[in-house]
Amino acid sequence: MKKLIIAEKPSVARDLARVLGKVPPSGDFFENEEWVIDSAVGHLVELFMPDDFDKKLKSWKITNLPIIPPEFKLKPIAANKKKFQQLKKQLKRKDIECVINACDAGREGELIFTYVYELAKSKLPAKRLWMLSMTDNAIKEAFSNLRDSIELKPLQDAARCRSESDWLIGINGTRAVTIKRTASRGRQVSTVGRVQTPTLSLVIDREMEIRNFVARTFYKIKAEFSVRNGNYTGYFQKENFSKSDADKHDRIDRMWDQDEANTILADLNNHETANVSETNKRSPQSSGKLYDLTTLQREANRLHHLSASRTLQIAQSLYEKHKAITYPRTDSKALPEDYGSICKEILPILPQQFKAFSDKIQQENWVDSGNKKIFNNKQISDHFAIIPTNKIPKSLDEYESKIYNLIVKRFLSVFYPPAQWDITTRISKLGQHSFKTEGKVLVEPSWLAIYGKDKVSSENLVAIASEDNNQAKCLDLVIESDDTKPPPRYSEATLLSAMEGAGKLVDDEELAEALKEKGLGTPATRASTIDHLIKEKYMRREGTQIHPNLKAEDLFHFLEAAGTDILTSPSMTGEWEHKL
Length: 580
Hints:
By secondary structure, the chain is an alpha+beta fold. Helices cover 37% and strands 19% of the residues. Helix 10 packs across helix 13 (398-413), helix 10 crosses helix 16 (523-535) and helix 14 packs across helix 16 (523-535).
């Protein structure tokens, strides 16, 4: 008897056939005396309505809503029907004793296999091949540790729940909005969805903020000071200032009244010498955590202007074709606690351009399995962080090289100790008024050297020391004016961050980690959500910025008037994702 393996894609089936002992091709699948290896091409099966709901589906009427079937049924996706029939035939073969689910290790991979298995009415015992990397060793290890399908039942339930809830919201929401909005002017389909509509609301809300923004003029007083070793500048600081949530534009060095600024300037002109005091502190700067998919997409967009979907495509190629990185569709930024030895094996074989940094890590023994920032089982879900594998890729194209290098640099940087900065804060006091100057000098580059930032420094106040009697001469005083600025439009990087934080734009990685379980969608679906909204002409890219179109504004005016704001709520959708 033979074992049937169903992979998610043909490329994975080819790799499995090679690793299992060069299982030869037989048409578009692989077979020998022990194995039959076939694959899906992504999703092959979709939900559909029972026959008695056909009329409701064909007739777009408000009276037919809501459409809620007593049970969901499955059917092959028309374009992939032939492939489904082939897998169904494999599952019915008399010489097959069991089936192994080798689809991607995640929610969607579970759903792809489950829907095929159920629609084919298979009764074969099922096992799960759980691969987190596509290297030969990882595949062999996964086969030696096959899991029972029942272990993955919660993941399967979440996948089914997501699929059915998306179907219900999509079909009812889209029909209700389309019927109501276009009753008088011909049908123009207005799609809505559990993830896409709240994502669009982020872009719409930002656009409204920008349009409704009223600029305010503020004033700053700049002073030029002179000491024995040179000159430096400082800015006037308001006394007893405290930040207020009610005015996010207020700062300790901003005044909103020109007369007040003029009055202070007149008083300052009575003083020629400032009393100087300063504090120095050593400030550590740690590297970022290892990449999950969303963080990698944000970095690739910020540094290389790549769209989220393009970054995912490149990462998928590095994983499948080149076997150079681990599974990319992950929301984890940590590694398993027993992965220290594997990291030590990877370091010495990284490309030559990184040899000095990998050698340093090995020489200093910086790979510490007890470091919970890197090795933490509690921060791993279906997959762990994206890191390079022990296979060095060859013949990468320009963008594959850029993404691979990002991943290698982040992998190396997490093992380095924090970089160290010397920060000097100087207060120059003219009469009763204080001016602040800050200087920052990089004294220990550490991991920053990996990024070529080992010579970063700003104004060196240590070099421009004050006089022995802690005094400085005031050379010039001037009032500068400027206007407050509206918030920037989203780039793809910042929109991904807002989706990850369920509407909260979060740059701090630790805070983002706490919010990510309640984000909009998953790392694997966020790119396709953005692309779908652009394809449906709800929004558009202009350079690096994302703008909403009139169609989107139209939709949101309607949803607001109809009292269906819940469809636009990022927090509600994030809560659903958390529960899934």
